[in-house]
Amino acid sequence: MTIPNLMRRAAGRARRTLQSRPTPVARLESDLRAQQDRIDELQLEIDELRRDSLRVAELIDLAEQAFTPKP
User: Fold this and answer.
1) Is the separation of the CB atoms in 22 and 30 below 8 Å?
2) What is the rounded distance in angstroms from the CA atom of residue 20 to the CA atom of residue 16?
3) Does residue 60 belong to any structural domain of this protein?
4) Is residue 56 part of a domain?
5) Which element (helix H / strand E) includes 21?
6) Where are the alpha helices (DSSP H) in the chain?
7) In this predicted structure, what is the pLDDT of residue 57?
8) 52 pLDDT more than 70
9) Residue 33: which domain range?
10) Is 2 helix (H, G, I), strand (E, B) or coil?
11) Full-model pTM
12) What total of structural domains would you count in the chain?
């Protein structure tokens, strides 16, 4: 086997090996995207809870006004 053939075979083997497994950086990027998606979901949930909390506060104010005796 000639040197160029050996180099070509080694390069092909390296390429197949690297393509078959996700690189550590690719895995980290994937994990980061998943975590960012989860953070976005949680932020939306927090916003919804804040809106609900404001509605409850408004209802409490209305109830206090309705049930407070007038002088």
Assistant:
1) yes
2) 6
3) yes
4) yes
5) none
6) 3-20, 24-67
7) 97
8) yes
9) 24-71
10) coil
11) 0.57
12) 1
Answer yes or no: are the C-beta atoms of 28 and 35 closer than 8 Å: no
Q: How far apart, in whole angstroms, are the C-alpha atoms of residue 55 and residue 63?
A: 12
Please list, in sequence order, all residues whose beta carbon lies within 8 angstroms of the beta carbon of residue 22, skipping any fewer than 6 positions away.
30
Residue 17, domain member (yes or no): no
Amino acid at 38: R
Contacts of 62 (CB under 8 A, 6+ apart): none
Cα angle: 59, vertex 62, 68; to 5 degrees: 135
What whole-number percentage of the chain has pLDDT above 70? 90
User: What one-character DSSP code corresponds to residue 22?
Assistant: -
Does some domain include residue 10? no
Question: What's the Cα-to-Cα distance from 41 to each of 2, 10, 50, 62, 68, rounded to whole Å?
Answer: 58, 46, 14, 32, 41
Token pair belonging to 10: 């080694």
